[in-house]
Amino acid sequence: MTAIWFNMALVFELLAGVGFIFYLIKQQKALFRYSSWALLGGFIFHTIFLWDSYMATGAIPVLEFRSALSFFSWSIILAYLVFHVKFRLRVLASFITPFAAFLMIISSALPNTNGPVGNQFKSLWLTIHIIAAFMGNGMFAITFLGAIMYLILERSIKKKKLGSFYSRLPSLATLDSINYYSLVYGFILLTLGMITGSIYAQFIMGTYWKWDPKEVWSLITWLSYAVLIHERLAVGWRGRRAAVMSIICFCILIFTFAGVSLWFGGYHSFENLGARKAL
Amino acid sequence: MIKIINIGMNHDSAPVALRECLATDPNNSTKAFDVMRNMECIKEAFFLSTCNRVEALVVTEEEEEAKKKVISMMAGMGNLPEEGLLPNLYILQGMDAVRHMFMVASSLDSMVVGEPQILGQIKEAYAGAIRQKASGVILNRLMHRAFHAAKRVRTETGICESAVSISYAAVELAKKIFHALEGKKVLLIGAGQMAELAARHLLSHGVTSIVVANRTFDRALEVAEIFKARPVYFDEIVSQLLEVDIVITSTAAQDFLFTYEQVKACLRKRKNRPLFFIDIAVPRNVQPEINDLNNVYVYDIDELKGIIQINVEQRKLEAVKAERIIQEEVVKFEKWLKTLAVVPTIVSLKEKAESIIAAELKKSNSTLAVLSHEQKQAVEILARSIAEKLLTDPISFLKGRSARPTLNNYLDVVRRLFNLE
User: Fold this and answer.
1) Would the CB atoms of A172 and B299 count as touching at under 8 Å?
2) In whole angstroms, what separates CA B387 from the centre of its chain?
3) Which residues pair with A59 in a beta bridge?
4) Beta carbons of A173 and B303 less than 8 Å apart
5) How many separate domains does chain B show?
6) Residue that is last in its domain, among B290, B309, B328
7) What residues form the membrane-spanning segments (chain A) (predicted)?
8) Do B297 and A157 touch (CB under 8 A)?
9) Mean of the pLDDT values across residues B91-118?
């Protein structure tokens, strides 16, 4: 049953992704409407899938790379939906949904390894840790895509060649404020995720901080975003420089998310999580 | 025979100086409505006065008389001799007048084709006409059709999306940079029609405050007067960079007014808020390298023209489409206007039937007295429906012939047949 929900979510999110790309090209509102329904449907199926997995194992389904990617994708869509309510920017969907759908495709291509889950994963602290960290990642994904949109538009205005993106993208000021809001919310969530994570570590392993590769890289990511926020608030960085910096930060974040977990080992690594070994 | 006449002048037909004479007094429209309503020869009137055009639209049966009166009224408003005004006026009649009004409302006749303000100005003027009871059946219909045509042009063509004007392009760019222009500050340096038009456009898009500088402070005061702006000394312009968001330069200076170093120095103090230079001057007033600075955008006149050029081809196609829409609407209006000619006859036909029914019922009053109230009503309804049935065919016959050139013959026959005089 769980697999069906996953596949339904995959299909609907793919449809929405393709639909939103066509919307970007054709600029027909009907396309946006249909794609939005598809996305909402996909999101609901995705939520059911996550709930189903959670009920089946008792732990949030992020223990192997496949599930982690799908949870990431879900977080991004949730972050988009929140932003859509606030900003009502249609073009945002054309960038975010394909990205979320892309993560789902990778996720679906990976082998499905289900198994019993150790009791140490069934903790409320862990649940909060994971949800906060992933929602933070989702917000940062919006920061990242907003920054890319900003750079595209800024370039076309600076080069004085107003291409097809010029009329399709919102104003620089809007993109910059999307960048700013998602950055602030993402940072709050990431901080919350790290604090709850260390509290959880204290419960399970008796220490708040273990210098695990994931911990170290998360700290690096957190520090990079902290620098960006500081520059924005105190120095008044905005626009291009802030956009470039948030793209760099997101690259670090992706490396922390995927690279570190796959290659560096440590108790956060998918190898160890997937094997459900005791910590 | 009723005629629709349009007398007016626009940016094409008359120079600014002349248009200004007529546009100075904001109460002109009210006065015009007053004057025209009291003219014997004018049945309905509409009057529009903006900074770019003056239009008088009247419905009359004595066209020569009406024309003369309207022209002398316009001359009186601007304190101008009639002979001086005449060469700058256009006089349109019948469907040409209707088409012109539709074009004006759709912003196809504007200096900045596609600019959206004109429709609002016409609606306001029309509301004035209604308040003063100057418009009637024909102009009400005409204006509503004009609004409809404008709406169609706006939604069905791309003309309004990309107005072909440099100042409009500048405003569009400013919006793309700042999103909303509300609360933004503009520094206008120098004078000239183009710069003032750009400033005016920015104002109408929400810019609230303008600062004006000029080499001669007196001229700055003059320009400031027009925009209700604040004049500053020419030496202050660089320090003003800390305050403003948009700078329009249009001076005859041979050197740059702003250099790369000057602008770079003020960016940090501005907390990197975006700064947009619109350089209309030739030779340029703003050093082009300033565009390389982060959050600063510089467009000179050629570059503004360059971004407009992109959609010239597409605009031509859209213009054809817009013309077709206007033509469709004019034809529809013409059709309606023609049915108007049959309306008086139809009305008198119905009146005649009504009076016959009333008279006959009165005659039979004594005989019908024995009937109950309901029965009396039934008899009345019966009489009325017989009359209506009898008239249905002649009326639909007349309506069907309303567009034919021979309509007047039919009208004549019907009037004689039913003895309607």
Assistant:
1) no
2) 46
3) none
4) no
5) 3
6) B309
7) 6-25, 37-56, 68-85, 92-110, 130-153, 178-204, 216-235, 242-264
8) yes
9) 85
Distance CA B233, CA B224 (A): 12
Contact (Cβ atoms closer than 8 angstroms) between residue A151 and residue A244: yes
CA dihedral (A200, A205, A207, A211) positive or negative: negative
Range of the structural domain that residue B396 is part of = 372-421
Residues B237, B178 share a domain = yes
Average pLDDT, chain B: 85
Complex ipTM, two decimals? 0.84
B329 domain-assigned: no
Same structural domain, B234 and B147: no
The CATH number given to whatever domain includes residue B186 is 3.40.50.720
**What confidence tens digit (pLDDT) does each residue in A130-176 have?**
999 999 999 999 999 999 999 999 999 998 887 778 878 889 999 99
Residues of B near A (CB-CB distance < 8 A)? Answer: 173, 175-180, 268, 271-274, 291, 294-295, 297, 299, 303, 306-307, 310
Structure tokens at B151: 């709406």
Same domain membership, residue B130 and residue B234: no
Residues B297, B383, single domain; the answer is: no
Phi, psi (rounded to 5 degrees) for B60: -150, 165
Other Cβ atoms within 10 Å of A93 Cβ, number:
26
Distance CA B396, CA B388 (A): 12
Q: What is the distance between the alpha carbons of residues A32 and A24, in angstroms, rounded to a whole number? A: 9
Report chain B residues whose CB lies below 8 A from the CB of A237. 272
The arithmetic mean of pLDDT across residues A120-133, rounded, is 86
Residues contacting A97, CB < 8 A, separation 6+: A13, A16, A17, A20, A35, A39, A77, A80
- Which SS3 state, helix, strand or coil, does residue B274 take? coil
Q: Which residue of A has its CA nearest to B300?
A: A160
Query: Is residue B150 located within the same domain as residue B7?
Result: yes
% of chain B beyond a pLDDT of 70: 92
Strand partners, B299: B278
Do B40 and B127 belong together in one domain?
yes
- The answer to whether the beta carbons of residues B174 and A170 sit under 8 Å apart is no
Instruction: Give B59's strand partners.
Output: B4, B44
Check CB contact of A234 with chain B, cutoff 8 Å.
Answer: no
User: 3-state SS of B151-163?
Assistant: HHHHHHCCCCCCC
Burial call B282-307: b when 16+ CB within 10 Å, e when fewer: eebbbbeebbeebbbbbbbbebbeeb
CATH number at residue B34: 3.30.460.30
Give the gyration radius of chain A's Cα atoms: 19
Is residue B31 domain-shared with residue B140, that is, in the same domain?
yes
Query: In this predicted structure, what is the pLDDT of residue A47?
Result: 93
Question: How far is it, in rounded angstroms, from Cα A87 to Cα A90?
Answer: 9
In 3D, which of A75, A255, A83, A43 has the Cα closest to residue A182?
A83
Question: Is B374 buried (19+), middle (13-18) or exposed (0-12) by CB count in 10 A?
Answer: exposed
Across the range B93-121, mean pLDDT stands at: 84
Domain end residue (candidates: B96, B131, B161): B161
Please compute Rg for chain B using Cα positions: 30
Main-chain dihedrals φ then ψ at residue A176, nearest 5 degrees: -65, -40
The pair of structure tokens assigned to B105 is 């409302």
List pLDDT tens digits, range B129-158. 999 888 888 899 999 999 999 999 988 887
Nearest CA in chain A to B305: A160
Provide the residue ranges of all domains of chain A, joining segments of one domain with +.
1-113, 118-279
Min Cα separation A208/chain B (Å): 39
Same domain membership, residue B180 and residue B39 = no
Q: Is residue B86 part of a domain?
A: yes
Residue of chain B nearest A244, judged by CA positions: B294
Structure tokens at A153: 């538009």
